[in-house]
UniProtKB/TrEMBL annotation:
Domain annotation Endoribonuclease YicC-like N-terminal: ranges: 2-154
Known cofactor(s): a divalent metal cation
Keywords for the protein's UniProt record, in alphabetical order: Endonuclease, Hydrolase, Nuclease
Molecular function GO labels: hydrolase activity; RNA endonuclease activity
Transmembrane segments: none
Protein name: YicC domain protein
The keyword Ribosomal protein is assigned to this record: no
Residue ranges occupied by any Endoribonuclease YicC-like C-terminal domain in the UniProt entry: 174-288
Coiled-coil regions listed: none
Family per record: Belongs to the YicC/YloC family.
Length: 288
């Protein structure tokens, strides 16, 4: 399978005291850059989460965001933090001792104080089990999303490979006709300049000219690289770096093909090939 570095998955589960949500998202990156964002009470599980995610992703800028939303219910009412209440009472007495006109804390003020109301806490084991199950579901959805995107990228690249092969096939037959046209032009110039078309001189010039515009080697290497692109895409896996290298090689051959061109159609074909390679290169950046 071909996997894109771009993916997203979001899953959630309901707990007795609230809801647990996990989001996974990633974009392309040269190497693996994983960031975990979670409540402090889940921070002890970070090594397990990091290991599980890293086992599935080899490249990409990934973010795992976990949210634990608590709620109060009639069955499990919130509890007062007795220690904090005593501390608030002591603080209030100290303030009023120094500032007699200071207003006393109301019940509403106390209840709004951060940490006064405590929800029944889930055990670490319960949190671990729920989060592990949630992570497995998220990773499955995440892999499926990356695979779907990867298959689209693969189809895109193979379409360009076919188009480049078509352009390549159209170039080779034009080389002999270009040499023939040059020979006729050369004979005409020699006849005008010298009054004769020296066969030996013509043969030498034609041989030199043919060697300069010979693109058989470039066309052969171009086809070899295209075949390797097909092979790598069929093999699958983490092939992004290999494909990126092949794009560089294809671009080099297309540049040489254009520089040797003495025919307008060959020049246009070389330009079209370079455009297609650039389109492929942009998409290859998204492949893991």
């Amino acid at each position: 399978m071909i996997y894109s570095m771009t993916g997203f998955a979001a899953v959630s589960t309901e707990l007795d005291s609230g809801s647990l949500t996990l989001e996974l998202r990633s974009v392309n990156h040269r190497y693996l850059d994983l960031q975990l964002r979670m409540p402090d009470e889940l921070r002890t599980l970070e090594p397990i989460l990091r290991e599980a995610i890293s086992a599935q992703i080899s490249r990409g800028k990934a973010e795992c965001r976990i949210n634990l939303a608590s709620r109060h219910s009639a069955q499990q009412p919130a509890r007062m933090n007795q220690v904090l209440l005593e501390q608030l009472s002591a603080w209030s007495a100290q303030v009023r001792e120094m500032l007699p006109d200071a207003r006393e804390l109301s019940v509403a003020d106390v209840l709004r104080w951060d940490g006064v109301l405590e929800s029944p806490a889930l055990s670490a084991e319960t949190l671990h089990d729920n989060l592990h199950a949630l992570l497995q579901k998220a990773l499955q959805d995440f892999a499926a999303a990356r695979q779907r995107e990867g298959e689209k990228l693969k189809s895109f690249l193979l379409e360009r490979v076919v188009q480049i092969e078509t352009l390549r096939a159209a170039v080779a037959p034009r080389i002999p006709s270009a040499i023939t046209a040059y020979e006729a032009k050369l004979r005409t110039r020699l006849l005008e300049a010298l009054g004769s078309d020296d066969d030996e001189r013509v043969r030498q010039e034609i041989t030199l000219y043919a060697s300069k515009i010979d693109v058989d080697e470039e066309l052969s290497r171009l086809q070899t690289h295209l075949a390797e692109v097909r092979r790598v895409l069929d093999k699958g896996g983490a092939v992004g770096k290999r494909l990126d290298f092949l794009m560089q090689e294809l671009h080099r051959e297309a540049n040489t093909l254009g520089s040797k061109s003495v025919d307008a159609e060959v020049s246009r074909a070389a330009m079209d090939i370079k455009i297609l390679i650039e389109q492929m290169r942009e998409q290859v950046q998204n492949i893991e």
